[in-house]
Amino acid sequence: MPRATTTTTLLLLLLAGLCGSTLGQYNEEEDLAWLQYYLRQSRVSSYNYVPYYEEESPAYAYSYPSATDTEPEPEPEPQQAAPWRCPQECDCPPTFSSAMYCDTRHLRYLPFVPSRMKYVYFQNNLVTSIQEGAFDNATELEWLALHNNQISSEKVGKRVFGKLQRLERLYMNNNNLTRLPGPLPRSLRELHLSYNHISKVPPSALEGLENLTALYLSHNFIFEMGASLKGLKSLILADLSYNNLRKVPDGLPASLEQLYLEYNYINAIPDDYFQVSPRLLYVRMSHNSLTNQGLSSNTFNSSSILELDLSYNRLQKIPRVNTNLENLYLQGNQINEFSISSFCSVVDVVNYSRLQVLRLDGNEIKRNAVPPDAPLCLRRATVIEI
Predict the structure, then answer these.
(1) Residue 66: pLDDT above 60?
(2) Which segments of the protein form a coiled coil according to its record (predicted)?
(3) 84, 27 contact by CB (below 8 A)
């Protein structure tokens, strides 16, 4: 036998022995499990983990009721998954057993949610409705992501979130909602409803949400807020930008720190409006219709505010601000004079403004109109644009 052939034969026998010893460590059932695992591992996934299913089973889907008044013909009920089983439409990583990823899969319905789940992601799908009782089994939910779908208010169950007494974050931005879903659980801390078609927020819509810290309602068509924010005792951030508001919301919470109202149609602010919120730090009201006639002398004289954005309004004079203010944006108005009394009621060595950034560009002020005592009053300013 030629030497090359002998060498090849020996190598083949050695490899066969190694493979035999390796495969011999598994019984028939384990071999099959390994093969199923390998096939699942080769699937394409949008996440960097291995999709894992405790047991393969037919997909579970809700049977949505017909739009007509007549009841549909009875159909065989789908085989319900065990409370711990992950639906085939989704991924439940073994290293994060309380999370279920069903996002970006062209789903038109919400699959069964196992009872152990705390974090469920349904975003970036084609879901149009949420059936009553859809989450009755998942009472441990803390995060629920439903953004970037096609959900309309008419197709959301009236008590669909009623049993989620541990829910903290609800994401429903980028849908077709015309009103706030509800009632919402009192445990809620963040509510994301931006980029919808909501036009009004009645006080009852947010009633009882005393744990809510962040409310996102930007890019809607809201023309009235009333006093719907008043009862939100823990609210820190309220984003109402890019709406159709003609007036500011009534009764700000005392806990509020950030208020965003830019890109609305607000033309006036009541006297002492911000005084009820002693923790307020950031106020943004650019791109509105504010005039000096709609402001009192104390409107912005709040010692807590650090940043105030009034750019692109209709102001003709610099409004009076507190000496603690650090950033003031007034560009794009109709201001024609530099009034140092707006920043310092008394100008001396002891009394001065903490202002660091002042923008007055895009107004009618001339550079030589800056008063001589401005450097003394604005001694901390590092940026002044005129």
Answers:
(1) no
(2) none
(3) no
Place of tokens 């429903």: 172
- The CA-based angle 341-343-347, given to 5 degrees, is 65
Q: What is the pLDDT, as a whole number, of residue 28?
A: 41
- Cα-only R_g, the chain: 31
Residue 72 tokens, joined: 């549909």
pLDDT band with cut points at 50, 70 and 90 for residue 357: very high
pTM listed for this prediction: 0.78
Lowest pLDDT segment from 22-36, 227-241, 242-256 = 22-36
Give the pLDDT band of residue 93 (cuts 50, 70, 90): very high
Contacts of 314 (CB under 8 A, 6+ apart): 289, 290, 291, 333, 334
103-116 CB burial, b ≥16 within 10 A, e <16 = beeebebbbbbbeb
Quote the strand ranges of the chain, DSSP E.
99-101, 119-121, 143-145, 169-171, 190-192, 214-216, 237-239, 258-260, 282-284, 307-309, 327-329, 357-359, 383-385
Q: Cβ distance 90 to 43 under 8 Å?
A: no
Would you say residue 81 has pLDDT above 70?
no
- Distance CA(112)–CA(79), nearest Å, equals 11
Beta bridge partners of 130: 156
CA 260 to chain centre: 14
The pair of three-digit structure tokens given for residue 336, joined into one six-digit string? 């024609």
Q: 3-class SS at 342?
A: helix
HEC states along 130-189?
ECCCCCCCCCCCCEEECCCCCCEHHHECCCCCCCCCCCCEEECCCCECCCCCCCCCCCCC
What does the block give as tokens for 129? 């409705």
Structure token pair of residue 131: 């059936």
Q: Do 322 and 303 meet the contact criterion of CB atoms below 8 Å apart? A: yes
Percentages of the chain per state (helix, strand, coil), in multiples of 5: 15, 15, 70
